[in-house]
Design goal:
mainly alpha; rod-shaped; membrane; 80% helix; transmembrane helix; 4 helices
Length: 136
């Protein structure tokens, strides 16, 4: 950074009373003051930006937490639906499979088997052998 001469500084102070003289170089007297003001402004801007970022991240994390909560709730609802469907399917299968279920119950199994074998014994030929009239 080039600095202006004292003559230019005096001219600047006398004529337009600004922090910079006519040339584009930073003036010696006002340079430190100007730079310190700029530094303070930058710090303020950075603080504002940090605050904004923190607010954004807080809002985003809140949104994410809510979304995760909704996902968990939706998963729970889906699980309940699946359980209900499974229960309905089981009951429907039970309605369809009740004759086979009779076979696997210990008490009814023997009675069912006895009935089945007794029906097998009384075929038309066995009935004729026993003397029971069976129409042909």
């Amino acid at each position: 950074m080039q600095l202006c001469s004292l003559v230019a500084l005096r001219r600047m102070a006398a004529v337009n009373n600004k922090q910079r003289c006519g040339c584009k170089n930073m003036c010696r007297a006002s340079a430190t003051r100007f730079l310190s003001k700029r530094a303070v402004e930058r710090d303020k801007e950075r603080k504002r930006e940090r605050k904004k970022k923190e607010e954004r991240t807080a809002a985003q994390s809140l949104i994410l937490m809510r979304a995760r909560g909704r996902e968990k709730e939706s998963k729970k609802k889906e699980k309940k639906k699946k359980e209900k469907l499974c229960h309905a399917e089981r009951s429907h299968r039970a309605e369809l499979m009740w004759p086979f279920a009779l076979l696997f119950r210990p008490v009814s199994f023997f009675s069912f088997r006895l009935l089945f074998f007794s029906l097998m014994l009384f075929t038309p030929t066995s009935c004729r052998v026993l003397g029971i009239n069976v129409p042909a």
